[in-house]
Design brief:
- By secondary structure, the protein is α/β, with parallel strands linked by helices.
- It has 12 helices and 11 strands.
């Protein structure tokens, strides 16, 4: 009888121990992340959004111990990338780094193009960086040397000043159109270059267009070489490298121009603890000296949100701002 009882107790003990080990293994396996995380980028490799994704992803890998693999999904104003991310299983293993164009302007301009409900199906985790912008002008056969001169010249020459844009409905397009409206309904012509910022810069250097709003990182080499003139800066403050270039708010145009941000997004329904892990890892990555140095060289401002709740409020405010801009400046969009 004693032997039977001992055998039963031993078997029970082994079973309990086995369950405990299995439970511990399951918990260890479930700890996020336990496999590589995909970061979708809505542009081809090499641009600012792609750079930010790779720099941040590498340092999140170091912190969390799993690879963050960038997949580039350009096209359709960012909708392809957004929808793939939003439809993914909400478990934190598919996220996205988007920017002001894809994740604030596109949902405002093209809500009918989406097959998802953007505001319900997409969650901002945190803003990462924002990028200063120059109002730059050609130095080839263009008399204005500052913003006041540009306004006066445009008033005296209606329909003759050409500004460069990376595409209809892009933020550089809206920036120039809003500037024209705020400066007195100036009559100017938009020239769109499908080759992006590099194409617009080439147009400016050749004199085919006369001014544009473009980010500092892409235009700085030409400004330093004297091929372009920085007439104004769109940023929170003046840049140390360009102390003589005044901000748009200093020149009397507050709210004109876009400080183009990059941010991390996840599918709605992602567990709060997973979002929190992503948020903390992204913020920690931005505190790394190597990341700060890399972004400083590009003149990127590191601007994380204080929390996920703050990120949601911030994105809602951004979209509200762009609704106001698109109501103020009527641009004919090709659907």
């Amino acid at each position: 009888m004693k032997r039977t009882v001992l055998a039963l107790l031993s078997a029970a003990s082994i079973a309990v121990t086995g369950l405990a080990v299995t439970g511990m293994a399951a918990r260890a396996q479930d700890k996020y992340p336990s496999k590589p995380v995909k970061i979708i980028v809505p542009y081809a490799p090499g641009g600012a959004t792609d750079i930010v994704a790779r720099v941040i992803g590498e340092h999140m890998r170091q912190d969390l111990g799993q690879s963050f693999v960038v997949e580039n999904k350009p096209g359709a104003f960012g909708i392809i990338a957004i929808e793939e991310m939003a439809r993914a299983k909400p478990d934190g293993y598919t996220v996205m780094i988007g920017n002001v164009s894809t994740n604030a302007i596109t949902p405002v301009l093209f809500p009918k193009k989406f097959k998802i409900d953007y505001e319900k199906d997409v969650v901002p985790v945190t803003r990462l960086v924002d990028i200063p912008e120059f109002m730059v002008a050609t130095t080839k056969d263009f008399p204005p040397t500052n913003v006041k001169d540009l306004v006066d010249f445009a008033k005296k020459n209606p329909g003759k000043v050409r500004y460069g844009s990376v595409g209809v409905g892009s933020y550089p397009h809206y920036d120039a159109a809003l500037f024209a409206k705020r400066a007195g309904d100036l009559d100017m012509i938009a020239i769109h270059n499908k080759a992006g910022a590099s194409g617009v810069i080439n147009d400016l250097v050749s004199g085919d267009t006369q001014f544009s709003f473009l980010n500092v990182a892409s235009t700085a080499p030409m400004v330093k070489a004297g091929n372009l003139r920085a007439m104004a800066l769109v940023n929170h403050t003046r840049l140390p490298e360009y102390p003589d270039v005044a901000t748009m708010q200093e020149l009397g145009f507050p709210g004109v121009g876009t400080i183009a941000w990059q941010a991390l997004f996840a599918p709605a329904g992602t567990p709060p603890e997973v979002l929190d892990t992503l948020f903390k890892a992204a913020v920690k990555a931005m505190q790394a000296p190597a990341v700060q140095e890399a972004f400083k060289k590009q003149n990127f401002n590191i601007v994380p949100n204080t929390s996920i709740a703050d990120a949601k409020t911030w994105l809602a405010d951004e979209m509200a701002t762009w609704r106001k801009i698109t109501n103020e400046v009527k641009i004919e969009l090709s659907e």
